[in-house]
Amino acid sequence: MIYVGTLDGVLYAISSDGSLRWSLSLTDGAGTWSISPPSIGRDGTVYTGAFTHLYAIYSSSMGLDENAPWPKFHHDNQNTGQAD
Fold it and tell me: Which of 70, 73, 72 is nearest to 84 (CA)?
């Protein structure tokens, strides 16, 4: 599963085959919001921010596989951006 936040305030979940799994608008009608890169908790919860809000979104996907070669944006949960 790939999670993508957009400048218009929508968070998308895209399956490995490229199909849209779900999308969620995180705007409040007051304008467009820029979504920060999502992070995935060990339990599969997707965390993302949009200006002054922090969202925790339950997802049925598995949690982050920390043993994968490069499991997320900036490599790891500490966002080091470095390979081991």
Answer: 70
